[in-house]
Known about the structure:
InterPro entries: Chitin_Synth_Reg (IPR051726), Sel1-like (IPR006597), TPR-like_helical_dom_sf (IPR011990). By secondary structure, the chain is mostly helical. Helix content is 76%, strand content 0%.
Amino acid sequence: MALGNDEEKVRLLQADAERGEARAQRHLANRYLRGKGLPADPSLAAFWMERAARQGLAPAQRSFGEFLEQGVGLDPDPEGARTWYAAASEQGDPVARRHLQRLEQSDP
């Protein structure tokens, strides 16, 4: 019964994400990242996280920056990560601000 319930949650989440709802896109990305209710797929996780980030959702911007910095589902891109951390930081995301400061301090 729990499996069917999770399948329904995933189906509804997928529908909301495809309609362009940023929060649903972020949650779907996290499910793909962790393999929760779906097969783990880092590339699809990155795809959906980027879509949410481009809509201005600060937690998604930070997470997509982390994906870029660590190369989760795509090639590592430290400069791209810096851009997304800055966007999330401007919206008051404290974790993104710390990531951005760490990257700036590591620059020679």
